[in-house]
Structure formats: C-alpha cells, structure tokens
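2 proteins. here.
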Amino acid sequence: MSTHHAIDAVLKSATERRDVPGVVAMVADDRGVIYQGAFGKRDLGADAAMTMDTVFWIASMTKAVVSAAAMQMVEQGKVGIDQDLGAILPALADRPVIEGWDAEGKPRLRPARGPITLRHLLTHTAGFSYEMWNADIGRYQAHAGLPGITSCENKALETPLIADPGTRWEYGINIDFAGKLVEKLSGQRLDAYLQDHIFAPLGMSETGFKIRDDQRPRLARMHARLPDGVLAPIDFEIPQDPEFHMGGGGLYSTAGDYLTFCRMILGDGSLGGKQVLKPESVAAMRENQMGDLVVTRLVTVAEAASNDAEFFPGMVKKWSFGFMLNTEAVPARRAANSLTWAGLGNTYFWIDPTSRVCGVILTQILPFADAKVLALYDAFEEAVYAARGGERRVA
C-alpha cells in the first residue's frame, strides 16, 4: 500500500489531538499484512509509547473466536446448530423469562416458550442480555445477589431471559454459554481448547485469558473518558484466575494476533497452510443466520461502561454465526455483507470478503462506542479503501 502516510496521518493526528491516548491498527488482504501503525501512548500516566506488540483487552472481540470454536464442535458432529442445548448444558434447560416486577419488587418469571439452541446463542437471539444495556438484568442481579459478568463467576450466568428464544436480537451472555458448551463437548477448559485448536495452529502466541509476565510491560492501560471529555488512566483488569473463562469477553491480544484470526476467516478457514475451520463453516459465519430478526440499537443503562451504540444507523443489520453483517455497502468503505464487531474498551475490526480486506483498530477507553474513537475508526477505514483504490488505479 503506497499511501501509508495517509493512514499514518489519520491515526497520528488523533493521538496528537488527544482524541485517544494511543492506537494500534493493522490491515491485511489475501496476500498478507498491507498496513500497520502504532501511535501515541499506552498509558497517559506513564511515558511508554504505543507499539505494535502492545497487549489489549479485546473484550467482545473474544466472541468471534469462541463462535469459531463452537463451529468446530458442529463440524465434529458433537452438537447440532438447532439442537436443544438443555440436555448438554443443564444451565440452559428451563431458563425462565422475566416479565417485570411485582408490587413487592420481586421479579415476575415465567417458563420460556421453547428451548435454547446454538443458533440462538451464536446470533444473540436466545433472550439473554447484559446489565449494561438492560435495566431488568441489573435489577435482577441486585435482587438475587448476583455478580456482574466481568466477575467471571458462574453465578453471573444465572440471570433470566428477557425474551423467548428465537424471538428477538438481544445482546448478552450467549457466547459465555457457547464457551461452556465447547468445554463440555471437548473435555478441555476454554483457554486450553482455544490454545490447542485456534491459537497454536495460527501462531497467535499473544492471545489468551491470562496476561503472561512477559506481556505485562506491554499492556495498554485502560482510560476513562470523563464527562468533560478528558481522558484519565484507570485500573481495569479481567480476573486472572477466573471461575470460568469468559467466552463473551475475556481475551487479551495484540493487533497482529487478531488480524491473523481475521485473515483465517477471510481465507475460508485456512491460513499459512493450517486449516482451522471448514469452508462451509466459514460460509455459515458470513451469512445471515437470524432469519427476519434484526440487530437493534444498544441503549445504555450504565453510562460508565457504554454509550448508546449502533453501527450504521438506518441500515438493516443481521447476525451470522459469529459476526454482525451490514446488509448494504458503506460508501467509500466496506462492501455489503462484511463481518464486524467490537470490544467494550473501544477495540474494533472488520472483515470484507468482497473487497478481500480486513482491518483491526485498538484503543483502551471506556465507555464503549466513544464518539471520538468511532470517528477515528471511520476515517481509518476510509483511508484504507482510498489507498487500495489508488493502488488499483496505478496498476
């Protein structure tokens, strides 16, 4: 990519404006990495520069990885996409639906109308939600004495459904259960399973639930965007000896490692001669798997954790077995039916199978869907496609 300086300028200027403390971004096509850049600081309270090998909490970018592991279980014939999972994971059997609260402030629960399937989990249509975007979940946690999801305690998974399985998209703890399913069917803990069957084959040596001693000095600090817009370093870390590995958001990684995962998806399940998924599994991870249901806006009820969040407002979005899909092309950017998602600490990626390109952009800022980071993400993506267009015109 001959116009690297244009992409560099987008990223560098964001750090100079203090829109972000620091940023690492990478892009690849079919042939390999075509852009990489690191700018700004890992930690505004220290002097360490952001580097390509900086380690980030990638939060919900974990979901696509664990979804891929669940698809490996399907490939092996260990579970069906539309099978009732209650018999395999008793925690998913007879999960009640919350319908509100009685006069005494107790939850009104009823049985769910139908079983939970892997399709429901992988498309976020099982009826589970997160406390950040659903007030009833937070209220239920308080009522029942349940910890929040980032505690990585099993009790955190005891929340009720807020809708019947298969009736609507509701972003929640689905992939934590997909992780539990992988553990049950493989006989391995999730960290070991992912290491053996995804990370090691792909050479993703910097990705895991536990921050290694050699990674600590390279860890990016989390920052909070204060109400006045100023960024301040904060202490934030996922439990390092968790009761369960959070399949929905527990991984730490680097831009290079996550881009490797994206390249495997771009390559129909293979990269560097290593096949991690069958092409038909990847095809299913690139297609709408929720029927007529649609992805809806995330409206925050926890402003320290998230802003209201919606990618491509006004466009119909669908969910595959692992990713959100934009159903229309984004002008000057990704093609229709590209794959994407994000992490709570403002980490983002996209995979565009039509244009044969994928990108990752990582910061560490709360709350999620930070306006300045989203503007940077847009500008970065536009610069990437402009450079690719320029290359093709030169050729």
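next one coming up
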Amino acid sequence: MPASTVAPTSVPSRDQQFTIAVSGDILPHSRLWRGAAENAANTGYDFRPMFELVKPTISSVDLAICHLETPIAPADEKLSTYPFFGVPAQITDAIADAGFDRCSLASNHAMDRGVKGIDATLAALDRNGVSHAGMARNPEEIEPKIFQVNGVQVAHLSYTFSYNGLPAAGGQAWRSALINPERIIRDTRKAKTLGAQVVLVSMHWGNEREWAPTGYQRRIADEITRDGDIDLIIGSHAHVLQPIEKVNDTWVIYGLGNFLSDMPTTPKDPPWPASTQDGAIVTASVTVSRSGEIVVAQPVVAPTWVDKNAGWQIRLVQADLENQDLPVTTRTALYQSLRRTKKVLADFIAD
C-alpha cells in the first residue's frame, strides 16, 4: 500500500516501476445496500462478497484506485439514495478488502450530505487505511500530496464538473475540487514542486449514457496535458464505458463505466441502458527511467459486469465466460456485455 513520503534526494541507480489498476463508479443504490444487509444477516452491511471475484486482480497491483461516487451517511442520519446519496460506511470495508489502496472522491454527489457527509466519508476510508483525493476536512487536505509506490513519488488529484447545483458544503469551496484547467495545471505544478515523479488525475465528467467523449472532455484533456506534467487521466461519471486515447502523448481513460451499481435496466422513466452494468478494471505499468522519463504502458482492459441476480457480484467477463458451470442466462448476458465493451475498447482488451 502507498505510504506518505518526501521527495528523494539522490538519483536512482536503475529504472523504477510500479503497476496500477483503476476502476469505475462505485454507486451503492438502495436495493444494492439491502443486498449487503442480507449478506450480513441484517446485522449491518457486508459488501465484500460483491467484490470477491475481482479481488485477485485488484490486489495484484502496486497501486489500485477506485472511484467512490457517493458520500457516506453520517452515523446519526438515515441512508439515502438518488438524488441525494448517503450510503453505508461498510462499503469502505469492502473497498479495502478488495485491495484498493486509494479512492477518488470528487463527484457531482460530493456535496449531497454536506459537511457531515464529507467528514464521514473520509473517516470511513481512514479507518480502513484507504487514502483519498477529492474531498477535504480542512483547506490543506485538498492540496496535492505525495505518496510513494515502489520507491516512486506519486501524486493523485481528483476533480468534478459539478455538484448538481448544490452549494459547497458549509460554504467552504475547499471541501472538494471542481474542474478548472487553470487550477488543475497549478495543482500539478505544485505536485511536481513537492517532488512528484508521476501525476495521476481523476476526472468526473462527460454526459451520462453517452459512450463518446464530449467536446468539453476533449478540450479539457488537451489543455491540461499540453505541458506534460500529467501522466494519466482517469475518467468517470457517464455510467457507461468511454474510449481510451492518447492526448498530447498522455493516456486519457475518458470513462470507466460503473464498477458496482444497481441502475434500473428494465423499462422505467428514465431508462438506463444495459451498458450501465458494464465496467472495466484498467491496468498499466508505469516506468520511471534513471534519467527521469515517465513511460505509462498501453493500458489493458479487463471487462467487468455487475450480476444483479447473483447478489450484485462484479464479474470478470472473460474469465467467467470460460466457466461452464454458470447458468446459460448468465453466460449469455456476459457475452452481450463483452460485445458492448468491445465496441468501445476493443483495442485495449487482452485476449
């Protein structure tokens, strides 16, 4: 797990390298958390079985980053779902158990439960040893921080396009971070000044249900990557997968879809497409040469799919398609999910 550190004072004697995994939105809806209550025999909430099948993949890398889109409900307040979320704190137990080291938190729902929701979210992650970016308890906490992964100094920043019209919690704008190219460039430069060799940026952006990146996404990606300080952009929010492309020689993962959610995919108002059950774990190796050059290898996509009929298990699509013991209906759904994912990310899916 990454540890806080200070910048190195000597040139490394060899290339340094670490592996990274990133995934899409964790969005616990009410039906999903009731399933977690059943897992805990109604004595609490246990989300861990939902992550069990992807745990080996998440745990196998040096740095695994999730995106927790919803705030935790304060202990003295009721849980809530759309449009203002407040979810069980036990989701962070499952995040840690699955092997995630860090979470991005800036999202359009970051202000849903105000100051107490932000504080509860950060306390729950801290309790589980999961570091975070995108929410803050004080002005200093939202500023860039450096942590170490396999001897490499890393910064990870998190921003969102909006708070769904809600004001900043407690009137404190520093409680989260909105997408602003000037701010992002300033933050990445500060991270470099603090000693960051690698800078990762999580962006909550794009249009819901749309697989194609918007002009806004493309413009922001181009603007913030021009100076070369950002090494990887990790996108979320659209609830469907979006492409991976290089912009100014920087890999941009525009959207990772939903990792864990319960969006209705049967005819309702408004309907959500079946592709909102699709997601991905994207892995890559990051190399820092002795001369300081940063190389992020081409990302590799492991398609995922949320099996609502099996307790909202997150399935690794390709691996489970090889499982002949699964019901035909499940294998058919997995095949359909893979077809959808290939339409967007075929060039990045390993055989």
